[in-house]
Amino acid sequence: MGYHPGLEDDGVYLAAVKARLDSALFPHNTAFFRLQTQATVFDAGMAGFVRATHMPLAWAELSWQLACLFAILFACHSIARRLCCDPQAQWAGVAVVAALFTLPVTGTALYLADQHLHPRNAAAALILLAVSRILAGRPRQAVPLLLAAALVHPLMAAFGVSFCAFLTLALLDSVHARVLSLHARVLSLSERPRIAWRGKAAALIPLAWLFQPANPAWVNALNTRIYCHLAQWTWYEWLGALAPLALFGLLWRATENNMIGRRGEKTLARFALAVFAYGVFQQALAVALLAPSGWARLMPLQPMRYLQLVYFFLALVAGGLVGKHWLRGRAGSVSVSRWALFLVLMNGGMLTWQLASFRGSAHIELPGMRPANPWLQAFAWIRASTPKDAYFALDPWYLRAPGEDYHGFRALAQRSSLADEVKDASVAMQVPELAPVWARQVAAEQGWAYFKLADFQRLKAEFGVDWVLVAYRQPAGLACAWHNRALAVCRIP
Question: Which end of the chain is more exposed for a tag (fewer CB within 10 A), N or C?
Answer without folding.
Answer: C
